[in-house]
């Protein structure tokens, strides 16, 4: 749509090659590229003073994320517009990622045991091999379990969808603790998402909502 309207547009997201990401970011920062369509991977460290628009096509997962991302606009003190294209259905996407697919301790333990059986401490193994070895665990839950183990520093993703085992001496109690910590994080993220959705639906002053959320006085 933007290209059809005459804009020169570049993308920025995690799956681009590093060189392409750097080129697109540098063009934007120098002002040679007026519009960039990006995931939130772009937001960190962007301190360009004359950004006039930040338009969110999807609802972010928290007010912290929204405030940080929208705060890239108007740093020179000039007029800037932060537009949130609010759509209630976006909540489902966040809930899917927050829920982590509902992996249980048994699921995560089965995946961990499969990694050990495949000697993943020596050579990274693909998800398909884990699927065959941990046959009682659904493929979606295998991926979720790998994410939990990766976040806990138990496995590393060597190549895309290939995983290597870093810690080989975990017991059920330690796996249980990893799952419990994840469930607690999920609960906190769910509460943050609900605050973000309330912000999108509110008819009151949104600056006041942000000030209240961050416990800051509102003049």
Describe, in plain words, how this protein is organized in 3D:
The structure is a single chain. With 219 residues, the protein is an alpha/beta fold. It has a domain at 98-189: Arc Repressor Mutant, subunit A. The chain is 46% helix and 12% strand. It has 8 helices and 7 strands; from the N terminus they run βαββαβααβααββαα. It has helices spanning 18-29, 63-70, 90-99, 105-117, 127-133, 139-151, 172-201, 206-213; strands at residues 9-12, 35-38, 53-56, 81-84, 125-126, 155-159, 162-165. The strands form 3 sheets. A 3-stranded antiparallel sheet has the order 5-7-6. β3, α2 (63-70) and β4 (81-84) form a beta-alpha-beta unit. The protein is globular, with a radius of gyration of 21 Å. It starts with 8 loop residues before the first strand and ends in a 6-residue tail after the last helix. The model has no long low-confidence stretch (mean pLDDT 90).
Index terms:
Arc Repressor Mutant, subunit A; 12% strand; 8 helices; two-stranded parallel sheet; 219 residues; 3-stranded antiparallel beta sheet
Secondary-structure map with pairings?
Elements: E1 9-12, H1 18-29, E2 35-38, E3 53-56, H2 63-70, E4 81-84, H3 90-99, H4 105-117, E5 125-126, H5 127-133, H6 139-151, E6 155-159, E7 162-165, H7 172-201, H8 206-213
Parallel strand pairs: 1-2, 3-4
Antiparallel strand pairs: 5-7, 6-7
Helix pairs in contact: 3-7, 4-6
Give a summary of the structure in a few sentences:
This protein has a domain at 98-189: Arc Repressor Mutant, subunit A (Orthogonal Bundle), CATH 1.10.10.10. Helices cover 46% and strands 12% of the residues.
